[in-house]
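Today's session is about reading a structure prediction critically. Students often jump straight to the picture, but the first step is always the sequence itself: look for stretches that repeat, for charged clusters, for runs of hydrophobic residues. Only then move on to the predicted structure, which in these notes is written as discrete structure tokens rather than atom positions. Here is the chain we will use throughout the hour.
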Amino acid sequence: MIALLLSALGLAGTLQVDVLDVGQGDAILIRTPADRNILIDGGTGGVELEPLLRGLGVSSLAMIIATHPHADHIGGLDEIITSMPPKVFVDNGQTHSTATYRTLMEAVESQDVQYATATNGWSKELDDGIVIEFLGPPSPNITGSRSDLNSNSVIARLTHGDQCFLFTGDAEEPTESILRQRGIEPCNVLKVAHHGSAHSTTREWLRAVQPEIALISCGASNRYGHPAEETLDRLASSGALTYRTDLHGTIHLESDGSSVTVTTETNATVEAPRTILSDAVVPRHYDPSPAPDPSGLINLNKASESELDTLPGIGPSKASAIIEYRMKYGAFTDIEQLDNVPGIGPATMSKVRPLVTI
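Below is the predicted structure for this chain, in token form.
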């Protein structure tokens, strides 16, 4: 077993969050001290949820949240709604043409379960000191994105005293951008969106959320290649400790309102941050930015994206391309290698060359 303790202040009662190992899909169980149980998503149905829930002592559900109507998130929910009807069923309000979605909604109707659509700002106190708040889907809904169903996922923020859990469904970059523009607050535990896909979890998002713990739900050797290497690199660079169901099995978290303890089903190695020492305690507001180069020049091998952005002719897109190049090919050994970065040509090189070092 692996355990991690994050220190803070104190609050009575234990909140439990389990990222269930359901293969390539999402299923997350929240259990409050007063035995109010919430299930977020239900996997594909390939792994039966009821035995997992009953094995954890769950016999009733206060709420089921379906983040969006893709089969890997709702496939197992119809059976749970039939065997363990929740008091309320919440989704993002978007329909889908699949038989999986129709079967789910038929189960909601047949069990006479209260239905609600998640809206930004809706919040509910579950127990004293435990609040769930919905931050998305965005209103108006995102349209014309790579996947509108993903981008309009239900986003839920769970707070317990000084601890925070952010659940993101399969939200992608457009959703993250909207939430950042609204002023998303830091949250120390992040359920990584879309199984660690490269289309989510941007550097800008991680700088805004500042997660200490990152949780990825994905299946072993899945055909999508989740989690993407670039996403793992971004998480590691952000300072987050990353746990994955494909490696660690079910991931169990406990919060007493002042600290979060993480235990895992297996003792697989945790993806450690690259920007901090192997300390068990991660500072809440750790700043991974490197110290400035004493020469006053910007070091191509150490500079953050925001620092590179300040160079003439670079801007956000080229700064990101420099970081991507550095992560793919390793440290620059010559300033002239900068010319190999997509989007950077002789004119930009002439402006940047006197201002950088390696």
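Discussion point for the tutorial: Residues 315-329 form the longest helix (15 residues).
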